[in-house]
Amino acid sequence: MGHMRTMRTVITTAWWRTALVTLSLMGVGLSSVRAEAPKNQLQIKGSDTMVNLAQAWAEAYMAADPQASISVTGGGSGTGIAALIAGTCDLASASRKMTPKEIASASATGAPPQEWTVALDGLAVVVHPSNPIKRLTIEQLAKIFTGTIHNWKEVGGKDAQIILLSREVNSGTHVYFKEHVLASLKDGGPKEFAPEALLLPSSQAIADEVAQNSTAIGYYGMGYLNPKNAVVAVAKTAADPYVTPSEETVRSGSYPISRPLFFYSRGTPQGAVKAFLDFVMSPEGQAVVRKVDFVPVKG
Q: Hey, do 40-119+261-291 and 121-258 end up sharing a CATH topology, with the first three levels equal?
């Protein structure tokens, strides 16, 4: 009996040793897998103008690096910048520059923001294809969107009330149009959007509304141009040429409502953030810009 108990003890001890070695090796294997296959997770938030562009970059980057995981959301430039300051996103996409107050708030967290100009854009002014008005000056646009001009006949069109479509106040596109079009009025007139302007949540919403409203006028990034909207040629003054947004006119600056598009990072980009930004600025990344109808910074 003592011999049998000794044999059982030896067998049991051997089994536990084998099990412990197996579990230990499994642990090493699992940790090795985790170490060898990290997820390069990035959160990008901000500009609705840039959301399709940022998504296209993300898809191209993830196709090249299957271990990368990039989430892209809109909400407006201000929303993205607020998220960057709060540390809830890795990159903020913005169709306007950060304000001094925003930069100070971000710097106070110990991560001064870095700015990257990643693409160029022309703000397209659009009307319904049936609208006979196909060209306007900056001054006429300012008077239309501030409500000084109310009827299309005042600029040579039909006798119909103008329906104003704008992005909401948190949009970088809204801010840029206000600062570069409305603020251009030199006659002491209003520099704010007319109270009757409809503030829509996205560029696509403006495109959709213009497509079904024959008296509407709106604006958005040129990447949203489509056959159901007619683009209006814009001139700095009545004596200047009327120009439509295109890669050539935006790059040259001859289109009066051209602007840069930005990414902002928290401090100096490192790791996955740096790798993604390097891709965005590479020839491959800049080719994506052209594919979604914006203007590359390079090439």
A: yes
